[in-house]
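Human:
Class, as today's exercise, you are to examine the entry below, and be ready to discuss the fold:
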Amino acid sequence: MGQVSVELSKRLSSAVERMPAFPKSVQRILELTRDINCRPKDLVAVIEKDPVITIKVLKIVNSAYYGLPKKITSINQSVVYLGVNTLKNLALSFSAMGMLPARNAADFDMQHYLVSSLVTANLTRLLAAKYAGELDQTDCYIAGLLHDFGKVVFALYMAPEFRQAMEMSANENISLHKAEEAVIGTDHTFVGAMLVKRWQFPAYLVECIDHHHVVPHATPLSECLFVADLIAEKLGYDSLGRVSADGPQVLPVRFGSDLDALIAGLGDVKKLVEDAHAFAQTGGLR
């Protein structure tokens, strides 16, 4: 993304500042789990200090989504049944959900956005596990979960322009990020990177989100996110991004050249979409 005007930069900064802060408890969870010596009880202690996340985790753990044989009454029990990585991803997902209003002036479909983000998060992690084993699975999940959060900023605080961009994307059959550039002067990747930087995520995640529509790709993480976005769109979950409207997309070499063959090799991706729907419905929007 190129330079933006001083006036637009001020508007974007103001919009980003109005977004809620990412919970410090989740940042602490991420810090802990990056330490190979992290003990499950340390993770439990942090989550239990956040009553909102604790309540939501226990709600979904005891829902039909997991179908566990007995009622779980504590975060400590949740770790035993689900494991550290699943619990960590639940905390991340619920924190992101907590920032999504059910309605907005741009009429941006937040429920569809939420499901799309969950689908993309799981696809990014799945692709990395199969094609880029050197990547951290949590980084992949975060990148997919937060990659389009700039759309939320636009929907909440630049609603008239964002609505116009969505209409242009649909009417002229161009990708949403191209329409945003035309109408607003920048796109959701740019403001999304600003937001993730404010939330104090690592620089490589900020970079990945800022350039997830840029080809060629700078890092393996960017490649996995780019392809996950394409697959999510093919499944009907691109959060209205219309990426393929820009024409055929060339896959990074590690994934081969045939998107359909790649999807077939990933297994039951429909189950992944069903799980995202179930999770979104259980977690709910505020």
In short: The chain has a mean pLDDT of 91. Residues 22-97 form one domain. Residues 18 and 64 are 36 Å apart (CA to CA).
